[in-house]
Write a structure and sequence with these properties.
By secondary structure, the protein is mainly alpha-helical. It has one domain: rbstp2171 (2-Layer Sandwich). Helix content is 50%, strand content 9%. Helix 2 packs antiparallel against helix 3 and helix 3 packs across helix 5. The longest helix has 15 residues. It is globular, with a radius of gyration of 16 Å. The mean pLDDT is 88.
C-alpha cells in the first residue's frame, strides 16, 4: 500500500489523467484501519460530481423503486472516483460496503449540499 509522498503523487497523477481536467482540489477520503493496530486502511480520492451526475443521483434517490434508490449513492460515488483504479475501488467496497455511505455523505457536502452561511432578504 502506498503512503506519504508516493500516495500523494499517485493521486495527483490520477487527477492529471482525468478528462476534462480538474482544476480544483480533490476530496481525499481515508478509511479507518481494517485490522486494529495495523496501518491497512484505504485512501480514495474523488472529484465533484457534474450537474448531470448530481441530477441522476437525485433522480435515483427520489424514485419509488427501492432497488434503484439503494444504489443511488453507489452510482454517484463510483462516477466521481479518481483514485484508486475502478478495480481496486470495487474490491474495497466489496470488502466494506458501508464505505459507500460514508464517502457519499462527504461527497454530498463537497458537491455543495450545505446550508448557506448567511441568508438575507432584500
Amino acid at each position: 500500500m502506498l503512503q506519504g509522498k508516493e500516495l500523494d503523487d499517485a493521486i495527483l497523477a490520477a487527477k492529471a489523467a482525468v478528462v476534462p481536467p480538474i482544476d480544483y482540489e480533490l476530496l481525499v477520503f481515508e478509511s479507518p484501519e481494517k485490522t486494529a493496530g495495523k496501518d491497512d486502511g484505504d485512501v480514495f480520492a474523488f472529484r465533484r460530481p457534474s450537474s448531470s451526475e448530481w441530477y441522476r443521483y437525485r433522480s435515483e434517490w427520489l424514485t419509488e423503486q427501492p432497488a434503484v434508490q439503494a444504489g443511488a449513492v453507489k452510482t454517484l460515488v463510483t462516477a466521481c472516483r479518481v483514485y484508486p483504479s475502478q478495480v481496486e475501488f470495487s474490491k474495497a467496497i466489496e470488502e466494506r460496503p458501508g464505505l459507500v455511505e460514508s464517502i457519499g455523505g462527504q461527497l454530498a457536502s463537497y458537491a455543495g449540499v450545505e446550508r448557506a452561511k448567511k441568508v438575507r432578504r432584500l
